[in-house]
Write a structure and sequence with these properties.
The structure holds two protein chains of two kinds. By secondary structure, chain A is α/β, with parallel strands linked by helices. Chain A is built from 17 helices and 20 strands. In chain A, helix 5 runs parallel beside helix 6 and helix 12 packs across helix 13. Chain A is globular, with a radius of gyration of 25 Å. By secondary structure, chain B is mainly alpha-helical. In chain B, 68% of the residues lie in helices and 2% in strands. In chain B, a hairpin with a 5-residue loop joins strand 1 and strand 2. Classes of the chains: A alpha/beta, B mainly alpha.
């Protein structure tokens, strides 16, 4: 084994019923290295991580560590014992305990706790890692980023040699990400090997040293970051050459019907109980527009108000110029409005139900309580959209929760498309899903618009919105502060509107 | 080799089916009875108290006495699926609905000469009362978001007193012998009417599940309330509705219970039946935390409990000791249907089917 190498996985195999999740995958990690693990959803990243952390038992292959040689990891406890720690996307700490308690809980060092020593140790560690939290502070009172860091501090204190960060940045804003990267670089300097799983390409190029790419459960290759330009990375992940991601807008013709200029939906002085200021909004037939702003600026709350998902306090809404009352989601659905929610797990999927039931749900509700679809009809709907959106599922009977994130999102999308809405609201449809599906969804949005559907598209990734939207509503502090269209649709203009709207007003 | 894999897949499909444990339980009960005393399965012609020829035997008695439980299991399944909790007040509300029925039938008189109102009117009043109790529970759970077990604790505690108060603590006796036909046999029909009532209820719920979206909505609400709401379902109403349906089941069960003795005993009638009803849902392999459900499995679960009770009775187990025996069997059934245990066994089956791979 190489002098510097702390982890080596060779020929890892893992098979699930019907799927070969990993086929002879190699992966190695050096001390003091940040190593990105990249691949589309379903490429095998999570499976590889779970094999390494003992959540899954591998079917074949070897795992070797620097000090101990070949090891068998049967459980997460084993992994921890060998110095392999994981910080997951969702925080798995206890929000109602203090920071110090969270760092030392369940470490099993005797039944008695020396609170004073524990708090002092925690404070020292927090200070040494430059984490802005007090040891005695309740964890829930810290920002998500700090909670994430506390989880890392806990891992570091357990003398970890290998630290796995599974999508740690997906719920952080830019500054928080910077802080996290600072911590990662600090750990790197101390000789910790970090495996970084993320969907954000920018972040990979900012902090990583090496990239390992997986595709369809197989190893594509391991690369030095400087040898692999971004476009090539995407091409490797997708398994095909891609000229330019940003060119998809050119492929679409746009909608040119006679009624192209007509307002489909219009809202005046709309306000919900989710704490947004009253706002005006309208969308034309075949138009794609979007809400942009920082996280928490009220983008989602606006579209939720339109759909009646939050309690509407005031304001008027019109469809095709006729006043309509939208008090609850079903009212919006009856008016041909569909809403793909931001949080797929909480608001989107009905986990235990089959893919089929998840697809037909909205249309079924609209059709009526006393008119269930026949089994054949439901199957026909499901099969149609599984094929149309290329949803990867074993069958229509598979529970949706066993699908990968991107495919779950496609199922939810299928649910709303099946309703044939006039106005489709997509709130972060591309969050946490792979590049391939992202491009698919963006293309689909433009295609639907060219057929005359109006779409509101929200995304945290500004370039994605610039690619798809022809008009952007800019928000700051739960208030609409501007509207951009035509030549104003540039990254800089959006930034300045978000930042500098105050002085103009 | 391929054939073996195929048969293994079939084996796994059978073991993985939700109906596997309940059906297995029935089979074991049948085998135990066959070995111990095959006369258990003998159904004979005999004369009942009125001198009419009827069928009798343990099997008939299981079907007869299991009726109330099967009917309650229907409602309990829906409540469990929609709210992720259970209604523990069904025994007490049977007393309330039964008492209301007697009050209408006897007109407040403890020993009336004739019935004071047609049975159908009394039954409809009982239905109304049962559904009101259900609505009360349902409103607490769905509107005020109180945990189902806590919400139904109110009627569990107060129900039997309310039942006694409805009839001024009297125990009215229905003078019309025909009233006993709802639990016993109608002359000329050799099978107890309660069996037909249970079958009717099962047919109705199966039709409702087939011709409405009750099943889909209930499961969706139980699995993910927030996403159901965003798909236009009204979770509050669905939960409320499930309790009201259970209330209706309670009224039908009350009709059979009261008919069995033509009177009522407020503190004893349908005692502990709520626990059996919850158990029926669990035995059917339905998650008590709500979500997906299988109605047939719950109904089968109800009859398993009755089968078990009758078996213990046949084995001359002391009536005081019966609950303990029942508990042992229940522990076995529930543990064996727990996902942890089932996963373990399916792993074991895998190892047996592919020993070669294990070695390598």
């Amino acid at each position: 084994m190489n002098e510097n190498r702390i982890l080596e996985m060779r020929g890892i195999d893992k098979t699930f019923p019907g799927v070969r999740a990993l086929q002879g995958v190699d992966f190695s990690l050096n001390a003091g290295e940040i190593h990105a693990l990249m691949g589309e959803n379903g490429a095998g990243k999570s499976t590889l991580i779970k094999v390494l952390t003992g959540v899954y038992t591998k079917d074949g292959g070897t795992i070797s560590l620097k000090d101990t040689g070949e090891v068998q990891i049967h459980s997460p406890q084993d992994a921890q014992k060998f110095g392999i720690s994981t910080v997951y996307q969702e925080i798995t700490l206890c929000p109602n305990l203090t920071v110090a308690e969270n760092m030392y809980i369940g470490r099993g060092e005797g039944s008695l706790t020396n609170w004073k020593k524990m708090n002092a140790d925690a404070a020292k560690l927090l200070a040494s890692l430059d984490i802005p939290a007090k040891a005695t502070q309740q964890l829930a009172s810290c920002s998500i980023a700090v909670q994430q860091m506390v989880a890392i501090a806990r891992a570091v204190d357990m003398e970890c040699k290998v630290l796995i960060l599974d999508e740690p940045t997906s719920s952080l804003d830019e500054q928080e990400v910077e802080k996290l990267f600072g911590l990662m670089r600090d750990l790197k300097a101390r000789g910790v090997g970090i495996i970084f799983v993320t969907h954000f390409l920018d972040q990979v190029y900012e902090v990583c040293d090496k990239i390992t790419v997986l595709r369809d459960g197989q190893l594509v290759g391991e690369y030095e970051i400087k040898d692999l330009p971004r476009v090539q990375l995407v091409a490797k992940m997708l398994g095909k050459e891609m000229d330019d991601l940003s060119d998809i807008k050119g492929e679409q013709g746009g909608y040119h019907g006679d009624d192209a200029g007509e307002d489909v939906f219009e809202a005046t002085g709309l306000q919900s109980d989710a704490g947004i200021k009253p706002f005006d909004f309208h969308i034309r037939k075949g138009e794609v527009n979007g809400f942009t702003g920082l996280l928490g600026s009220g983008r989602s709350e606006c579209v939720r108000a339109i759909f009646g998902a939050d309690r509407v306090l005031q304001g008027t809404t019109k469809m095709h110029g006729k006043p309509v009352k939208i008090a609850k989601p079903v009212d919006a659905m009856k008016n041909g409005i569909a809403y793909l929610p931001e949080d797929r797990k909480v608001d989107g999927i009905v986990g235990d139900l089959s893919v089929r039931d998840n697809i037909i749900l909205a249309l079924q509700v609209l059709t009526g309580f006393f008119k269930p679809f026949s089994k054949a009809q439901a199957n026909a709907f499901a099969d149609e959209y599984i094929k149309k959106l290329n949803i990867k599922t074993a069958s229509a009977d598979t529970p949706i929760k066993s699908l990968s994130g991107g495919n779950q999102q496609k199922v939810i999308l299928a649910r709303w498309l099946l309703m044939h809405p006039e106005y489709l609201i997509l709130d972060e449809p591309t969050r946490g899903i792979d590049v391939g599906t992202k491009v698919d969804i963006q293309k689909l949005v433009l295609e639907l618009a060219s057929e005359g559907m109006s779409v509101t598209f929200i995304s945290s990734e500004t370039d994605e919105m610039l690619r798809t939207c022809s008009r952007l509503v800019v928000m700051r502090d739960r208030k609409v502060v501007g509207e951009l269209s035509g030549e104003d649709l540039t990254q800089n203009k959006i930034m300045s509107t978000i930042a500098g709207g105050e002085s103009k007003a | 080799m391929k054939n073996k894999a195929k048969s293994n897949g079939l084996f796994k499909r059978i073991v993985g089916n939700q109906m596997f444990i309940p059906v297995l339980a029935i089979l074991i009960l049948v085998i135990v009875n066959l070995v111990k005393d095959p006369s258990f399965f003998v159904v004979t012609w005999g004369l009942n108290n009125d001198g009419f020829p009827v069928l009798s035997g343990s099997l008939i008695s299981i079907l007869d006495n299991g009726s109330e439980l099967a009917i309650l299991a229907i409602g309990m399944t829906l409540v469990t699926a929609a709210s992720g909790g259970q209604d523990i007040s069904v025994g007490a509300t049977i007393a309330v609905a039964g008492s209301a029925m007697l009050r209408v039938l006897c007109g407040g008189n403890a020993r009336p000469e004739t019935t004071q109102a047609p049975v159908i009117v009394a039954f409809l009043v009982a239905c109304l009362v049962g559904m009101l109790c259900g609505a009360f529970n349902g409103a607490l759970v769905s509107v005020f978001k109180i945990q189902p077990m806590v919400a139904t604790l109110i009627l569990f505690t107060a129900g039997r007193s309310i039942a006694a108060w409805i009839n001024n603590n009297e125990l009215p006796i229905v003078p019309d012998p025909k009233f006993a036909w709802f639990a016993g046999c109608i002359p000329g029909i050799p099978i107890p009417t309660s069996v037909f009532i249970a079958i009717a209820c099962i047919i109705v719920i199966m039709l409702v599940l087939k011709f409405t979206n009750l099943g889909l909505y209930t499961q969706a609400v139980g699995i993910n309330e927030s996403s159901s709401r965003l798909n236009g379902i009204n979770p509050t109403f669905i939960k409320f509705l499930s309790f009201v349906i259970l209330g209706l089941c309670v009224a039908v069960a009350a009709l059979i219970k009261v008919s069995r003795i033509s009177t009522i005993n407020y503190s004893v009638i349908a005692k502990d039946i709520e626990m059996d009803a919850i158990l029926a849902v669990a035995l059917g392999g339905n998650a008590l935390s709500g979500g997906k459900f299988n109605m047939w499995a719950s109904i089968l679960g109800a009859y398993i409990i009755q089968f078990l009770t009758t078996t213990l009775y046949r084995f001359k187990v002391d009536s005081e000791a019966r609950p303990a025996y029942k508990a042992v069997v229940v522990i076995l059934l529930v543990v064996s249907s727990a996902p942890v245990v089932r996963n373990y066994f399916s792993q074991l089956a895998k190892q047996f089917s592919s020993p070669k791979k294990e070695v390598a």
